[in-house]
Write a structure and sequence with these properties.
Layout (H helix, E strand, L loop, with lengths): L12 H9 L7 H11 L4 E4 L6 H11 L10 E4 L3 H14 L8 E4 L5 H10 L3 E4 L1 H9 L10 E4 L2 H6 L3 H10 L5 E5 L5 H10 L4 E4 L9 E7 L6 H12 L4 E5 L2 H13 L4 E4 L5 H12 L5 E5 H4 L9 E4 L6 H8 L9 E7 L4 H11 L23 E6 L9 H9 L9 E6 L4 E6 L3 H10 L9 E4 L1
Length: about 450
């Protein structure tokens, strides 16, 4: 049976025509089950994995509720991290492209307060942000939620894990009681149930199975004696499988940084991603990993939430996850879009209780294998194929990807095939080039002109 079409819903013709243009032809299971209820005004608790289509589900709901002529904040989407908030805002803008003058504003920590204050003074229809920064704006009286009709909590479990409950409670107190509330969470601990009881009116729970198609993910479990042997175990597995792109999940920030430092010392192309990093460093790390100028990302679950990067060939669990659903969430980052992936997990006797829970959840018997022989450490280390050049100019300087591409390929200075992703931010641009031409590309950009002027550039590591 084919999936339900968006044109069979009460969405406006502008929205459905735009969905067709974007290639959204059929609904995903969560959209098919949740969207009609959301469009009917019901409160929803959605439980599903990353990539289930939940962002489009709630985005279409809040756009359906929007009155563009009323230039007031009508929707608020709360996300645990800036990366996820940026991703959600991008999706909303894309879906709203056919509706004229929809203003979507992101308000997140780790970014300057001044421009946000200025943007708030100009007004917005939809706010996407992190709880801490939204709380700050509310306390200072800069944000008015009195005309809010839709409240969305995305990745609600992570927001509670990160300690945002007091900020969330203050935000709820500023929202009108007559509104629609949509809560999405990968896992469903008791605290989420308590929050739902507090803020929602007869919500309907819609759960889309979070078990992945195991045929696309090859799972391996390896026994380690203790924590001291784990770093060597990671190195053995990386050199055995030689992944083009790998995420190593750790349970703590300290482990994440220590493992990343150790792998870099061993010669791996590696970067850490965790909550203690400055926002600028987190942004640059994600850019480098996405454009293949670093091929191993060591991350905590919270920091990696919202990570939407294609072709991750391997996931490695430094420890077994505390929760079986988190394990499934982690390994589901590989083996996507018809590709196959490898998931390796390290386990010790102390983690037996977690392994038992995981076996029950996955409905499979877990048998630990011995680690590869130390001889594999003699294998060459697979290096990232690209290098990232940062240019000190971005959208604010009217710089476009075409300007950068044109400068690099002018007079056949650099072959176009050696140039990878070009990513723009308000004040910076990042271009990936093959390692073999990195120095030449840097020279071309530093000494040449774009938009009639010189821009400083450097290779970021």
């Amino acid at each position: 049976m084919s999936a339900l079409s968006f044109s069979n819903t009460v969405l406006s013709s502008e929205l459905t025509e735009n969905l067709t243009r974007l290639g959204y032809l059929e609904m995903t299971p969560i959209q098919e089950r949740a969207l009609p209820k959301i469009l009917a005004g019901q409160d929803i608790i959605g439980q599903g994995k990353t990539g289930s289509g939940k962002t489009a589900t709630f985005s279409l709901g809040l756009l359906h509720n929007l009155n563009v002529k009323r230039f007031r904040v009508q929707s608020l989407v709360l996300c645990p991290t800036r990366e996820l908030a940026d991703q959600v805002a991008k999706e909303i803008r894309k879906l709203a492209a056919a509706i004229h003058n929809v203003k979507v504003l992101t308000l997140c920590g780790g970014t300057p307060m001044g421009p946000q204050i200025g943007s708030l003074e100009h007004g917005a229809h939809i706010i996407v942000g992190t709880p801490g920064r939204i709380e700050d704006h509310l306390r200072k009286g800069r944000l008015d939620l009195s005309e809010l009709n839709t409240l969305v909590l995305d990745e609600a479990d992570r927001m509670l894990e990160m300690g945002f409950q007091p900020a969330l409670e203050l935000i709820f107190s500023h929202c009108p009681t007559e509104r629609q509330s949509l809560l999405f969470s990968a896992t469903f601990p008791d605290k989420i149930q308590a929050m739902a009881n507090q803020i929602m009116q007869k919500p309907e729970l819609i759960k889309v199975e979070s078990s992945h198609n195991h045929s696309s993910i090859e799972q391996h479990f390896f026994e380690v004696d203790n924590n001291d042997g784990r770093t060597t175990a990671v190195a053995l597995l990386l050199q055995q499988f030689q992944p083009n792109s790998c995420v190593v999940f750790c349970n703590t920030k300290l482990e994440t940084q220590a493992l990343s430092d150790s792998l870099i010392q061993r010669g791996f192309s590696c970067a850490a991603l965790h909550g203690d990093l400055e926002q600028r460093d987190r942004d640059q790390t994600l850019i480098r990993f996405a454009n293949k100028s670093v091929n191993i990302l060591v991350a905590t679950d919270v920091a990696a939430r919202g990570l939407d990067i294609d072709n991750i060939t391997m996931v490695l669990n430094y420890h077994i996850a505390h929760d079986p659903e988190i394990h499934v969430h982690r390994i589901g980052r590989t083996g996507r879009a018809g590709n196959t992936g490898i998931a390796c997990s390290l386990m010790s006797n102390k983690e037996a209780h977690k392994v038992i829970r995981l076996e029950e959840y996955l409905a499979l018997e877990i048998h630990a294998k011995p680690l590869p022989n130390n001889d594999v450490l003699n294998n060459p280390i697979s290096m990232a194929p690209m290098t990232t050049i940062q240019i000190d100019g971005g959208k604010k300087q009217k710089l476009r990807p075409g300007d950068i591409l044109g400068a690099l390929t002018a007079n056949n200075a650099i072959d176009g095939d050696t140039i990878g992703k070009i990513q723009m931010t308000p004040l910076k641009a990042y271009v990936a080039v093959k390692r073999t031409v990195a120095k030449k590309a840097l020279k071309v950009i530093s000494e040449g002109k774009m938009k009639g002027r010189n821009f400083r550039a450097r290779i970021i590591k």
